[in-house]
Design brief:
Elements: H1 26-44, H2 48-51, H3 57-76, H4 88-106, H5 111-117, H6 119-137, H7 141-166, H8 173-178, H9 188-208, H10 213-231, H11 234-250, H12 255-275, H13 277-280, H14 294-312, H15 323-326, H16 328-331, H17 347-372, H18 378-391, H19 400-413, H20 423-442, H21 449-460, H22 466-479, H23 484-494, H24 499-512, H25 519-528, H26 533-546, H27 559-562, H28 565-580, H29 588-598, E1 611-617, H30 621-624, E2 634-642, H31 667-675
Antiparallel strand pairs: 1-2
């Protein structure tokens, strides 16, 4: 690896600029300092990736994003010292990327939120241009940028390790090795991404610095490796392997030494992988009847959703940042999908879903440029290559530190233009920055439905304001019908006063999140209140099948529901038999079906003991909606269960320990069972109402 400032070849092709061009204007310098300070603050303010959506941290977040855009505007209209642009291939790629992002957001069904979510991507592109311009102003700036990246990542690594270590006192050794490090951004995958970006710079600075400074950079390498190990990220481990291989290729060593070093690095990597229980599981074969790997299942569901999202809007996608709003449309057809997601955990899948084919083509264009210019700055190229491997399993460009770090590496790799800086292209860049900034600032806005939903749920707990709550939920659904939280809670709000409307909302909620706890109970109550006992029994049986602990819920003590116990048992057995014809023999799901079938005779038999009732909170909702100032919404569904009491025999010793948790059946199968025909009388002369 070489440092551009230490090599005459690295400065070849630079266009000499007037001496006064090395003195940035005070305004530009001040904006740059504000931007760097804001970026450092929002990165280190753990958990930075979510805290940036809470007041007053949103101001710091905005400052970090706005600073490079304002610098680009100021430099673009500086006719005395025009903005230095990279070679046309790089300039056109960045300009095309910005255009695709803005146009995709403008044509998105969620235009306002999409434009707002596009800000980190656009700010990263602006930083690429201003960083390249700054690098061209003086040949020593490349070394300064490399050192700055090293210092920045050193602070991040120290904070990460210190915060993680502060959680360890009092833990057992097994807990320490399995504890994933989420610091400072709030998620362990972010920790791994930061480590991969930092490692090449620590290595370069360690090789180029005199003693004892080189020892300090060696300590940085150790900290970055510790971040990777404690993150437990499998994608991070693969990225480290590719990073080590790339460093070995470019290292100025003879073949035997490279071989010995390669073997040593492989052994170290294997030791790191085996040290963490999560990464160690990569080397252990799984039995077909073993419990499903939840993480793998969820990631597979996200990839499937991403493919389907992009296929429905293949040119420009759904718009930047719209995954939390659009994913629910596809949730019902996924096996193992979570209720909602912030991202698809794959950069290619995210680009395809949100920016379509044009976004993917632009990303491939960038990869080709990096590969063709890797020799200009091998350290930057290695950082991007290692991070690219992790990016296959995660999406992180909506967090400013990642988009800016990648932009800095790209600026170091970008080839200079064969033309000197000119006022015309410089003005075009400045004008484009103004247009993009204006659109984001004037048209971009947060989605209004989350605030409406949380306000409605707060009002719904008071009977005097229940009508107002129902009105808010209806207005929210009119803006975006693909909201399970609104359908589910509106159903519970209307289950007595308007059971026919409640049934429609419960069905809509079930099709969005088929394994939602309480949705089939609500559906059964709505049908029972319409004198449809057979349909109600089927819904109660579905609730038991989706959430086996409901077999013994105190809800069965309610007389109208208890009256359906026999019919529900018959439907429960019929549903299990139907599911067994679909589920592959010998699979984990088939084994669970057999165990649940053993518990069928106990349906509705509520054990003795004190009852507890509570309402579930949706703690992740404000994060998903990128608005941490929202109160945590509380569902209207009253969960009822028997309080744990070891002295009370709740089930037979055969069935009780083996019942799976809610959501164990694939969602498509639940929908298939929901749509299956129901036999039995359609109406009851009793007209029981719970």
């Amino acid at each position: 690896m070489t440092c551009p400032a230490d090599s005459a070849a690295a400065t070849a092709g630079r266009t000499p600029l007037p001496p006064d061009a090395t003195r940035p204007k005070r305004l530009v310098a001040a904006l740059a300092m504000i931007g760097v300070a804001a970026l450092a603050t929002i990165t280190l303010a753990t958990p930075g990736a979510t805290r940036m959506f809470a007041w007053p941290w949103t101001l710091v977040y905005a400052a970090a994003l706005v600073a490079p855009v304002l610098v680009l505007i100021a430099r673009g209209f500086d006719t005395r010292q025009p903005l230095a642009l990279p070679a046309p291939a790089w300039t056109n790629a960045a300009a095309a990327g910005a255009a695709i992002i803005v146009i995709s957001a403008l044509v998105s069904p969620h235009r306002g939120p999409s434009l707002l979510a596009s800000a980190p991507l656009l700010a990263g592109l602006a930083f690429f241009f201003v960083a390249f311009d700054w690098l061209r102003a003086d040949e020593t700036h490349a070394a300064l940028l490399g050192r700055g990246l090293g210092i920045f990542f050193s602070v991040v690594a120290l904070a990460s390790f210190a915060l993680w270590a502060s959680d360890l006192p009092g833990r057992a050794a097994a807990e320490i090795f399995s504890a994933r490090n989420p610091y400072p951004l709030g998620h362990s995958n972010y920790t791994a991404g930061l480590a991969l970006l930092a490692l090449p710079w620590f290595a370069l600075l360690g090789l180029r610095s005199p003693r004892p400074a080189s020892y300090a950079w060696a300590g940085g390498i150790a900290l970055a490796l510790a971040m990777l190990l404690t993150s437990g990220s499998r994608g991070g481990l693969l990225g480290l392997a590719v990073l080590a291989l790339g460093a070995l290729v470019v290292a100025p060593l003879d073949r035997p030494r490279k071989l010995y070093l390669g073997v040593g690095l492989a052994l170290i990597g294997l030791a790191l992988a085996l040290a963490n229980p999560r990464t160690r599981a990569m080397f252990q074969p799984a039995s077909p009847t073993a419990e499903l790997n939840v993480s793998n299942l969820q990631r597979s569901a996200m990839l499937t959703a991403g493919l389907r999202m992009g296929a429905d809007r293949p040119v420009l996608g759904w718009g930047p940042g719209t995954t939390p709003l659009v994913y629910p449309r596809y949730r019902g057809g996924l096996e193992g999908g979570v209720e909602n997601v912030l991202q698809l955990h794959s950069l290619p899948a995210q680009l395809w879903a949100e920016l379509g084919a044009l976004g993917v083509v632009c990303a491939v264009w960038f990869v080709v440029l990096v590969a063709r210019n890797a020799r200009r700055e091998p350290t930057a190229a290695l950082a991007l290559i290692g991070y690219a491997v992790l990016a296959l399993t995660d999406w992180q460009l909506d967090v400013p530190v990642f988009s800016f770090a990648i932009a800095a590496c790209a600026a170091l790799l970008a080839a200079p233009s064969s033309f000197p800086p000119r006022a015309g292209p410089s003005r075009v860049a400045g004008f484009a920055a103004i247009v993009a900034f204006g659109l984001v600032a004037l048209v971009g806005r947060r989605d209004s439905t989350p605030e409406m939903n949380t306000r409605a749920l707060a009002l719904a707990h008071d009977a005097a304001t229940a009508d107002q709550a129902a009105k808010l939920l209806r207005e929210s659904l009119a803006l975006n019908p693909a909201q399970e939280i609104a359908h589910f809670n509106l159903g519970w709000l209307l289950v007595v006063r308007d059971p026919a409307a409640a049934e429609k909302h419960f069905l809509a909620a079930a099709r969005l999140v088929p394994d939602k706890g309480g949705v089939y109970l609500g559906l059964g109550l709505a049908r029972l209140n319409q004198n449809h006992p057979a349909d109600a029994a089927r819904a109660f049986a579905l609730e038991c099948l989706n959430d086996p602990p409901f077999l013994r819920s105190p809800w069965w003590r309610e007389p109208p529901i208890a009256a359906q116990r026999g019919a529900a048992r018959a439907e429960f057995s019929a549903l299990i038999a139907q599911a067994q014809t679909v589920v592959p023999l010998g699979s984990w799901t088939a084994a669970q079906l057999a165990r649940v079938a053993e518990a069928a005779p106990t349906l509705g038999e509520v054990p003795a003991g004190p009852e507890r009732s509570f309402f579930r909170e949706r703690t992740g909702y404000p994060v998903l909606m990128r608005n941490l100032d929202l109160p945590t919404p509380v569902d209207l569904y009253p969960v009822r269960e028997i309080a744990p009491d070891p002295s009370v025999v709740q089930f037979s010793a055969v069935t009780a320990p083996f019942l799976p948790a809610k959501g164990w059946l694939p969602s498509p199968l639940l929908l298939q069972l929901l749509d299956a025909p129901v036999s039995g009388p359609r109406k009851s002369p009793l007209g029981n109402r719970p």
